Backbone:
């Protein structure tokens, strides 16, 4: 014998599903950064990925 859920049972199931979704869904950040803090600092300082870093005397220390 197959019986349908009553209105109260259906409402309880729907509420349980919504509660599970609310507890299991990751919280969305209000502001997601397009770039990370290290990349932002490099852009602000003008550091390139293919540049050469020089020491204070003007000599080349290492390629980046």
Residues:
């Amino acid at each position: 014998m197959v019986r349908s859920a009553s209105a109260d049972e259906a409402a309880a199931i729907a509420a349980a599903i919504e509660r599970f979704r609310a507890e299991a869904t990751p919280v969305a950040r209000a502001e997601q950064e397009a770039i990370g803090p290290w990349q932002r600092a490099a852009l602000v300082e003008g550091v390139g990925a293919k540049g050469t870093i020089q020491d204070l005397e003007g000599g080349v220390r290492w390629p980046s």
